[in-house]
Amino acid sequence: MFKPTWSSGTDGFHRCRGTWPPPEAIEYETSLMECSFGRWEGLAENEIKRRFPQEWEARCADRWNCSAPGGESYADVHDRVSSWYSSKSFEGAVIVVGHGLTLRVFRGIYLNLPSEEVFELNEPQDGFIELRCGHSTFVEN
Fold first, then answer.
1. Using alpha carbons only, what angle is made at residue 16 by residues 14 and 21, rounded to the nearest 5 degrees?
2. Which of 11, 65, 91, 131 has the highest CB neighbour number within 10 Å of its CB?
3. Can you give the pLDDT at residue 95?
C-alpha cells in the first residue's frame, strides 16, 4: 500500500490529505515555510510601488538577490530549502506541501535549474507537480 511521508511548511496538507492515503509520518518543516515579504506582507503591488518605490525598483532589477524590506529574497529561500533538501534521504514516497514561491524554488533545486528558469516555473492552482527521476510533471486534479 502507498503510504507517503508528508513534509509541510504550512498547514496545507490539511487541505490535501483527503486526496491521498494517510501518511506514515508528518513532518512540519519550517524550512519549507513561504517566503517572508517583510514590510510588504499583505500589500497589493500598487501599494508597494507607492510606499516603497526605491526598494521596488531594486527588487525588479534583481529579483533573485534583493528582498523586500525585512523580508527574504529568492536566494534566501533557496538557501534554507537547499539545506533541508540535502539533509533528506527521500526513501519511498514523499509529499511536499507549501506555497508557490517556496515550491517553485524547491522544484528548481530538484531539477537543478539556474535561477532565471525558476522564475518561469508555473504555480498551478488546479493540480500538483510530481517530481520523479529528475523530471517534473503537472498532474491535474
1. 100
2. 131
3. 81
Rounded CA-CA distance 123/112 in Å is 18
Q: Give me the pLDDT at residue 19, please.
A: 56
Number of Cβ within a 10 Å radius of residue 131: 16
The pLDDT value recorded for residue 22 is 62
Inter-residue contact 138 to 127 (CB < 8 Å): yes
Q: Which of 103, 106, 72 is nearest to 86 (CA)?
A: 106
pLDDT average per 10 residues of sequence, the chain (141 residues): 42 51 74 93 96 97 96 96 90 81 94 95 85 87 77
Task: Give the separation between CA 109 and CA 78, rounded to whole angstroms.
Answer: 8
CA distances from 46 to 49, 56, 58, 106 (A): 5, 10, 15, 28
Q: What is the pLDDT of residue 81?
A: 95
What element of type H or E holds 47? helix 45-51
CA distance 99 to 57: 24
The SS3 of residue 106 is: helix
CA dist 17 to 94, 98, 126, Å? 13, 13, 16
